[in-house]
Amino acid sequence: MLLSLPAVTAVLILRYVLREVFTIGEVATFGEIGSVITGVTLILGFMLGGVLTDYKESEKLPATVAVALAGFRSTAHSGLLAKDLDVSLINARISKVANAIAGWFVGTNSEDEMWNSLSDFPALIVDLEKAGMASHYVGRLMVLNGELNATLNRIAVVRNTSFVQSGYVLMSILVLVLQGSLVIVSFPSSIMSWIAPSVLSLAYAYLWLLVRDLDNPFGHSENDGKGSGADVDISPLLNVVRALSIH
Fold first, then answer.
1. From the DSSP assignment, how many helices (H) and strands (E) are in the chain?
2. Which of 16, 85, 205, 242 suits a disulfide with 4, CB 3.0-4.6 Å?
3. How far apart are CA 7 and CA 64, in angstroms?
4. Where does residue 20 rank: exposed (0-12), middle (13-18), buried (19+ CB within 10 A)?
């Protein structure tokens, strides 16, 4: 919301300068800019609906990764214990991969580093099979590894692509035109001539920022690692990573 304030301030300052300094009255009525408001509302609604669809899916992905990691470890441990093998041999390797995934989410390591670390899971499955793990445990580990790869690939796509790039261009132009229209529009009441432009400018600037923020629900590494309020909750993943590191 605070990031929308500069747009409101600019609109009000320009209105004041035109009216008080250059003595230029409002040159358009609120009814005349109704078509502009309608166009901006339609494109914002379309863009917001699109990014919300991806956002709702993205909310589930960190928990899916957490479940796959926890399931991989528990399955590997069960398979080793069934053969009276030492489970401590795999703890460090699983924890290393889990920490690399968590680091990718929060921006402490790159996507390439995460994938390079994850490539140890297939090698670990082969090592466990050579150690004598039963085939049904090995098969389950392969399924979990596949699910983990598929989920991380989906997250990478969401992070690296924007929703309808041309739509962003149109949306930005229309919002800018609307902000400019609010500078010159007239209202019957002198009080509303300041309140209405302020409210409308704030609302549409906020929606513009909201659409852009929701388009990357995995922006936890942005803003010096603080992310934003629109980032999805990754605490289930971080909790599992911490648990894997302890054990």
1. 11, 2
2. 205
3. 39
4. exposed
Chain centre to alpha carbon of residue 247: 31
What is the pLDDT at residue 3? 59
Domain that includes residue 116, residue range: 57-161+233-246
The number of beta carbons lying within 10 Å of the beta carbon of residue 162 is: 12
Q: Do 65 and 97 form a contact (C-beta atoms < 8 A)? A: no
151 belongs to a structural domain: yes
What pTM, to 2 d.p., does this model score?
0.81
In a 3-state reduction of DSSP, which class is residue 18?
A: helix
Residue 54: C-alpha distances to residues 177, 193, 207, 211, 225 (Å): 28, 39, 17, 12, 22
User: Structure tokens of 18?
Assistant: 């035109």
- Comparing CA positions, the residue from 3, 36, 4, 44 lying closest to residue 215 is 44
Q: What's the rounded Cα separation, in Å, for the pair 63 and 235?
A: 8
Count of domains for the chain:
1
**Residue 206 neighbours by CB distance under 10 Å:** 17
Q: What is the largest CA-CA distance in the chain?
A: 89
Q: For 41-69, what is each residue's pLDDT tens digit? A: 999 998 998 888 888 989 999 999 999 99
Whether 121 and 68 have beta carbons less than 8 Å apart is answered as no
* SS3 sequence of 49-110: HHHHHHHHHHCCHHHHHHHHHHHHHHHHHHHHHHCCCCCHHHHHHHHHHHHHHHHHHHCCCC
Cβ neighbours of 84 (radius 10 Å): 7
Residue 137 in domain: yes
